[in-house]
Amino acid sequence: MVVDDGIDTGPRLKLYSRPADVEYWTERWTDASGVSYERERRGHLPHQLRSTWKRWVEPGSSVLEAGCGLGHFTVAAHALGYRAEGVDWSEPTIARLRTQFPSIAWQACDVRRLPFADRTFDSVYSPGVCEHFEDGPLAVLEEMRRVLRVGGIAVVSSPCFNVWLQQRTSRLASADAPADADFHEYAFAPAGMARLLEQLGFGVLQVRPYAALDTLMQYGGWRVPDGMKNAVALALDYTPIVRHWGSTCLWIARKR
Question: N or C: which end of the chain has fewer CB within 10 A?
Answer without folding.
Answer: C
